[in-house]
């Protein structure tokens, strides 16, 4: 089995998080408790960043970009935690490594699916640009071309993506990874296990929201039941309830899409269609110019939002990939987690 090198092992299934509280095994020292407390406090702050000031922010590309940014931060923080714990690779059970590699592959698949969907949505921008160009003329022939481009845009955006459809089963597997049998008893292992549980919950939540937004179906919407023993549980539950409730409301309204920026473009398209198709006999030039201008602004905002989100998804892909690489490096004779982390940090700096 190939074993990648991980510097920030985003998904280390170190066991059932609820068994972490068991008094058996090595006791967690005050120093380790302090390290864990700092990690969970930082995790909670990242979750708070995702609580929108308004429900209108939910499922906007800017909110999704922020969600991916804080997810990368959490995964990178795990790398720092591993450095602080100085947990050598020879203390890791073979099962931890095997399951991690399996989960990280699934995460990479999810990233590839998200990237393909973002690329597909961005391709529609060419059709919008073509329509806007033709709307710059008052000729009926140009209007016909504009109408064709706008119809093509709606068909393109409305078509499905097989890769996104497969995300459902992958997310189910990731959900199953949250509760795994305990493999080892050690104070450092318990701390890392509890920290990893928080990151896994955050990751499954964010990926679930993305899958729902891209698929147009709430079937992939996950509801994670986190025990109150975790200091960040209340914040997470509040965030999850707020986001999931808004998602269900939007789907029940039966709109063209649940993504804010896509819906803004579609609203302008709906307003333009009857005009350029000649359904509306008289329309003031001023009103037409206004609608075309609004469509142009909405299309540009959509394109910019997709570009920014694509960069963040790519960054997360790199986090997971370098994590697998670091783990492979750890498996070399005499290697330690810290050796690999230092190496992957250097590689990441070169990439950036």
TrEMBL record:
Membrane topology: Single-pass membrane protein
InterPro entries with a match to the protein in the record: ROH1-like
Pfam families reported for this sequence: ROH1-like
Protein keywords: Membrane, Transmembrane, Transmembrane helix
Cellular component terms per the entry's GO annotation: membrane
Main localization of the protein described in the UniProt heading: membrane
Subcellular location per the Swiss-Prot or TrEMBL entry: Membrane
Family to which the UniProt record says this protein belongs: Belongs to the ROH1 family.
Protein name: Protein BPS1, chloroplastic
Organism, as annotated: Cajanus cajan
